Fold these 3 entries.
Entry 1:
Amino acid sequence: MVKLSRHYLLVLVIILTLAATGAYFSYPGIKQNLRAALIGSKKPANIINVVVGCSQEPKTLNPYLSNETPIATKIVTSNILWGLLAVTPDLRYVPRIAEQVPTLENGLVTENPFTVIYNIRENAVWSDGTPITADDIKFTWQVIMDGRYKIADRSGYDKIERIDTPYKKTVRIVFKEPYANYKDLFSVMNPVLPKHLLENQNFNEAINDILPFASGPYQFKSWKHGDSLVITANKRFWGRKPYIKDITFKFVPDINKQLSCFAKGELDVIFPPFQLETVEKLKKIEGKQIEISPSMVWEQLAINLANPVLADINIRKAIAYTIDRKRIAAAAIGNEQVLDSVIMPEQKPFYAPAWGKYRLDIKTAREYLRKAGYRAGVDGIFAKDGKPLEVTITTTAGDKTRERVERIIKDNFEMVGIKLRIKNTDAKKLFNIWLPSKNYEIAMWAWLESPQPRLSFLFTEYQTTSGNWSYYSYTNSELLNVLKQIDHMIFEDEKSWHIRNIQDKLSNDLVIIPLYRHQQLLAYDKRVRGIQDNVFLEGPLWNAGDWRLVNK
């Protein structure tokens, strides 16, 4: 699970501001075979360009390495490098480089040992004409697991025992144990890599500023750092050729400037972070299409159970009945659609609205405060042993929406009789220092949900990632053990039953309080047709090969 709009992912780092270098990229230092792969590419014949406005510029083009801009990297490379599978807007896994989605039903997933078989499309080739083969899949895994490289996330890949390549276009992945999220591997954030071009390269450096190969409908063309990046149609693409020749990603971090460029026709497509103020400004621009849809990103209040006051379930219950989540949602996204789960409603059969029992109820909130031993003073503030009940809330400084929500929560707390202190900080300090060290009481940030729920990623500490998202100090050993087991459940009925039960338990323990789903904002010139937003990582770029440009 991981984002505020797609720009917050991996929630913690996406919202960081990066400084542009302002320089053109030059080729010196790139190995000769990589340079030749780029220069040797032929240009498509059609001359059409669409300009996409981006709020963030990537720091690297390598989608595997740890960096502060993983989603920015994903957006500009998603049509260059493809994985075995893709995720559609309705959260289905569909084939890309693979011929089929492996399942138990079609025999491509087997047990004892747990094995997944992929057959690669016969006509799938790299942009230099070299076939995409099983060796590329095996090589990709070897790169991910190579300790010399600064890989951002090895989750799942560390569960692989070996990869067999019995045929040129067939790969057999044998796991050490059942792994339920096998469809995410070599897909989604982790595209397939070309062995013939990268096997003698330093992966930490080889493709940071240039991507001289492609497996998707587009390939890298140029990058003017601090300004724009251009991708162009891959003439050797083995699928249906894209309609648009070039897509230019124009980096405009200032939202007001982005809207101005969009209004003047300098940008054809934009997807800025959702803000109600931004929506109102977009509505005033003629000739544009605006689409707003719920994303897979959800906002939460995290409660640090290591705090001696918040460790009392009665205090947490009081807080849950104190917060007006409908008012919060209305202030943040413009409607009262409260999120009552840590799973999205579309994720049936996993979804359970377990937090639906918590609504603003001042009387009930005060009853729980009394159960915790607190009594209201003459000033209306609850206190215990002469000490007033005061809680500190923390979030990312400068985020207008979150600061608006904090003011609502402060009003709610004062109405019930709890003091709330606001102590915000910059995103880097919050996610790199305060949360990992559990130096907070209540914190507000967002997560991005995966197509297949991965609650263990949030609440357990056994993941092998470079960062650990378990910030809640949650110590229910029985539940945490079940969470770990879920990752090995390959039968959906069994897995969904446990996940629904876990949501009930989490809501009873009030480790977190889900608030609302972030909205995705997409706006584009009406001349652009075929564009479709995706609630998952690639956003509207997921089907850029289907975009068309028509006359006004």
Note: The radius of gyration is 24 Å.
Entry 2:
Amino acid sequence: MLTQHPKGVVVSEEKRHVKFPEEGVELDVEVGKNLLEIIREENFKLHADCGGIGRCGKCVVRVNGKKRLSCRTYVMEDVEVLIPSQESDEGYAIQVDSDGPREGEYIDEGSIDDALASDLAIAVDIGTTTIVGKLIVLKTGGELASFAQLNEQLPYGADVISRINVSLDDASELSAIVTKQIDKDIANMIKDSGVDSSQIKRVVIAGNTTMTYILLNAPCRSLGFVPFEPDYYYPVDQKYKDIFKTDTLDCDVTVMPFISAYVGGDLTSGLCSLGAEDDFILMDMGTNGELIFKRGDQLVCTATAAGPAFEGGNIECGSGSTKGAISVVEHENGEWKLQTIGAAPPTSICGSGILDLMAVLVREGFIDETGLMTDKVENGRIVLAKNPALDSGEVYFTQKDLRQFQLAKSATRSGLEIIMAVMGGDIPKKVFLAGGFGQNLNPESALTTGMLPKSFSGRVQAIGNSSLSGAVKACLNESARAGLVDLAEGGHEINLAAHEMFDDQFITNMYFEV
């Protein structure tokens, strides 16, 4: 079994036997075939945050009893492969709901009997990490059912860049995964709800530009190379069977239009959800940080290359919001006070926990202004919790992890400073935080670390999954659907990398106020 990248290894027609005992699967594969590729083909759950280039260390498996990176392992002999427990959909705190209906909107759910006999619609949000959906009663706006799953594209990378690289000239592989997953989720939701598919009159789908391209089986090369301008513009309304290639539903699908290559339909949907709100910044805080400043008729937007650190990616003990992930961190009398998702023993640390931890490090002198750990940190890493069930025996945070956060923090803050400078005038009256990370973060920690400017104090409000909320609103409101294209086309995008302020801002915002 080769574990280093084997230059010149050729896949032959000769076969070797691969056994996955915990999955109950055995198969014969060609000699020299990559193990991560096999795992992907079998649709087994295994994270590969870096997309399989050997950088993140998250795709570890046991091969004949020894730990190996599956992306750097090639089948040269008969093997038995054990895949460690991954974040299951059941144990993952996937965000479905927002803070609820706005005043006067869709709050009368009516009776179940009426709902079961009513016309219905389905709203779907395709995230890079998760996919969620709701079955909505058109007459009342009530929710009849929902689903929430991890995106089955995760073995291909944690961020959009990894997915783009897989889909440069042919998106069919990832498109087949996502369309099959959503179609199955919709079919199961309809069956479990006891309604008939003929009652579904519309589906509305929101997602970032990359996820939307992949859904529609559009090559992603234009999204991955300068000048990063989309070359495929799709009709907003399409037929379900044309996208999903099944007869599960016979209705129209509204696909939220994107603003740019990296400010997607999920932000258009978020704007839709906010309706008549004005003078605000909407921040969708995730793997790809998207920012929009709306004031009157002006819309200034940008995307920050925050990377996956806010969702636990590229962090040694990092994870998404899964059971056992440390989500709240405090430090009292020299001891770490932790809260975990599901109140389970600590197994990892997710984005909100990382942000809290960084705020502690800033406040209590564990790091200097450059982000370098001080002599208060022993052996170059901070041990948050012991857990003998883990291979490492503990959940910890390193200098390298800190630098990953520092880059993400600076990218986000720099984007904010630039869109405020372009808009001019006063700071916004409100700052809405959307997305899983944005919903769960402690605003005080964001202010302490400098991810948000201190002038935002008292103005920050978490609004949950605004992308899904906007999709629900578009299901219910014909005028909202009619205005989607104008909404998307009204945005003035700022290319951060080309902006004259960016380099100075990025360097300045790498520092901490200690």
Note: The two ends are 49 Å apart (CA to CA).
Entry 3:
Amino acid sequence: MQIRLRTPVEHPSTDQPARHAHDAVSNCTPGALRQFAVWVMAVSLIIAQAATGAPRPVVKNSGADEVAEIGIPKARAVSLPKTDSASKSSKKHTPVPPKAKPVQDTAKARPPGKIRLGDEQWFGAASSIDPVTEIAVALTIQLRKTAITAESAQGLSVLIIGDSLSLCGFGQRLDGRFRKSPQFKSIYTYMTCGTVPLSWLKVGGYPNAKTCCGFFTIESDEDGGSPIILEDTYGNKRGTKPKPHQVPKIEDLLEHAKPDILIVQTGTNFFDLFTDGKSISAERHERALKSQVVPFMREVLKTHSSLRKIYWIGSPTSGRVTADIQDFVFERSCKFTAPVATVIDSRTLITYPFTGLQRDHEHFGGADMNRWADRVFERVMGDLTFRPLPAVITAQVPVEEKSAVPSPAADDKSISVKAKLAFKSPPLRVEKIPYGESLVAYVYDVVQVLKGDYAEQQILVMHPAHIRRQAQSLSKYKIGSTYELRVKEVDGTPWATTKSSDQSEHPELLHFIQVADERKLPSRGK
């Protein structure tokens, strides 16, 4: 027996879903009618969400508490973060509710409500409560996925930039995931070792920045051919080391790629600001992080003409600095990229210690690196599915207020002191220096301030200990000897994020570097 329904009355806000519903059930059996009821439920779910704005449950986002992938027959599933068991069940297109597990990661789970990555969290919570709702969720994802595909019928362009973790496999894996997805027409990926956000700018202290420890680019061919790849990394050719390469500039990359989406993987080199790996000087370290992130965001927003979305990918758990430091860096990254970027906390995506973890307790490769890239891709796709892309980014980073009280750091002025060397930290071993350069902390007792203002009784000066992996002679500095030092704050120089040895146990002291040593950094290109 056939069941025919009268054509629903069109309504400005619901006529399109109703028309689809009518097509689906105009000739249906009782079994098909049940399918129709599920479609109606999915559409009602969307309408009710928009109309009521009711509070949604928040699912804590941790590596061990993840939403299973929802299998949808005859449609590519939106891959949400999943466990191994969920991955197996998804192949049979059987929805699996998330299972609560204790957090195993050494880092703190992200507090709920700080960062919302998309409505997929709410749908994941709803589907875990009611199996009928779970079916509606699957259909809702399919509907919204179709809308995204239709919106980007011409294909979206993606620009990815990253540091040494990208060189360890993250960048290539993420590039491949986007490249295989039909929603994207062109992918441009640039990975350079030892970089921080300012390294990618023409303005500021890094206009001629070079990377000496690895360079890898993957660019779409404008004629539709295979990607154009340039790789110069350790292990690429036996017995060879990477050559120096100019760090590409974001101004040029935005003009060339004209991306809809910018993905920035960064943050690992920020940890070098915390020289002892455990102490935080809130004011000084916040100022240093702000000086790196805010100028980058401003230049991106000033230069772009096509950007519709920015994703800022924070670092996975690091074993060389405390969890408090990692929280500090992540929270400031959120603060200084707001309200423009969506920040993803990678510590919630994979569990430390990682497979293939290197001796620095930070770099890694293998299965966990692939898992990290896959889950970042899934987060981005989930966000794009549930949050329509704007026509173009119009928000701006707030203008920085200038300090009412001038300071040497703000005006980039040096100070000169006569000081007696009181303590010398031992330099790092060469194998602990991934980027070729390192600093070592010496503490001096201030005898006299010759120029500028300095009120402390001691001054901490960072001396270059390695340049291009070659040890620098520091034998002229002897305990008890007095020296005249012309110095400036390290945080205002390209040396700021260089790996350092500091055993002085004076976190309250500002870090200075001699003006003569500032220009010795090879990445300055001078």
Note: The radius of gyration is 27 Å.
